[in-house]
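Continuing the batch. This is chain 6 of the set; chains 1 through 5 are on the previous pages. Same settings as before, nothing changed between runs. Recording input and output for traceability.
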Amino acid sequence: MNLDFTGKVALVTGGGNGIGRATAVGFARSGARLVVVDRDPEGGEATAAIIRQQGGEARFVAADVTKSAEVRAYVRAALDAYGAIDCFFNNAGIEGKWAHTAEYDEDMFDAVISVNVKGVFLGLRHVLPVMLQQKRGAIVNTASVAGLVATPGMPAYVASKHAVIGLTKTAAGEVARHGIRVNAVCPGPVDTRMIHSLEAQLNPADPAAVGRRYQQAIPLGRYVTTEEIANTVMFLCSDLAGAITGAQYVVDGGRTATGGAVMQALQT
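Output for chain 6:
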């Protein structure tokens, strides 16, 4: 996708790996200056290094997105470095453990909600005032197809991603008249550590078998790539999407179009 972000500043949370890294690199290749945020210093620094090796400009900020002071600090770091935040990919998230609702660990539930809901809220809470002052900006929150349909065995993750869509719609309606757009991307199963962790939880003896069964049930016949999610995020942050706000964009290889077929494959 040929999108030009020359002169723009992009802030990406969860940028140390997976979708976050692919999106940060994609923004940089399109001319943006990057602020990469992650709680993993090694992964976050590696993403920034990749960008710099490719001739881009990037800074890494270590932060726990569940802590307001640390979110405020990564926003301040972006402003101190570049003076603006044009694009915000509010992406950091965790999957938690696989277990039915009747057996789900309460501490794990709290951890997933804290990162996936409170972390997204705090990102909005501290970035939106900057964009309101600028009178411009585009935000994409990472939701999931799990924010649209059920995923048995993942009650915390499903609840959190439904909440992200609610936050997205609420914020979009509040700031649309101020030149700011807020959307959500809803990935299906993506070829990242997260899906492979779930495969291993479902069948520790043969996680690859789970992966094969899952991909066979997806109409596209494979997992989505991180670059495909990154392309959607960049489109939603671009002027090409100037009339799009409060929307959720599904990128799932047809997973939700087939109803429960994929989840039946997981349960088999």
